From TrEMBL:
N-acetyltransferase domain mapped to chain residues: 1-144
PROSITE patterns: GNAT
Origin: domain of life: Bacteria
Gene3D superfamilies on file: 3.40.630.30
Pfam families attached to this UniProt entry: Acetyltransf_1
Protein name, per record: N-acetyltransferase
Length: 144
């Protein structure tokens, strides 16, 4: 399995998966809006989307957004979006995507966090030793 940065050629499959991800979070299907949203992210380069790929099949994605923390006085990468296609769940793909996000954070000397709206301090740090626990706040239907 290869984990790489998404490119324009991935738009069709990636936007369909993004729409499924949104539906798993209770949103109505919006394939055109999902495509426009992902296309804008790819063109404007205002997020990083890693995809997991096996041969020519895209198995899932994680989307990271650059930001800053005034409280922590540091730049950070945060993510709210991670998805693995249903037929490929429970195979370690989501964990591999999280590890890739952590790798990017380490390479850029930036914190990697999961924005958590209900958590006490607002962030869950991504930890190499316990990345699977990060998933507990996600919809199990979308991640595992």
């Amino acid at each position: 399995m290869l984990i790489r940065i998404a490119i324009e050629e991935d738009l069709s499959v990636l936007s369909a998966q993004f729409d499924l991800y949104r539906q798993s979070l209770g949103q109505l299907p919006a394939p055109d809006d999902s495509k426009d949203f992902i296309q804008s992210r790819l063109q404007e380069n205002d997020s990083v989307i890693f995809i997991a790929q096996l041969e020519s099949e895209i198995l899932g994605f994680i989307q990271l957004y650059p930001s800053f923390s005034s409280r922590l006085l540091k730049p950070l990468w945060y993510f709210d979006d991670i998805f693995v296609v249903e037929s490929q769940r429970n195979k370690g793909i989501a964990t591999a995507l999280i590890h890739k996000a952590k790798e990017l954070a380490d390479e850029t000397n930036v914190l990697a966090v999961r924005r958590e709206h209900l958590d006490e301090d607002g962030f869950l740090m991504i930890d190499n030793d316990d990345s699977k626990s990060v998933f507990e706040s996600f919809s199990r239907a979308a991640v595992i």
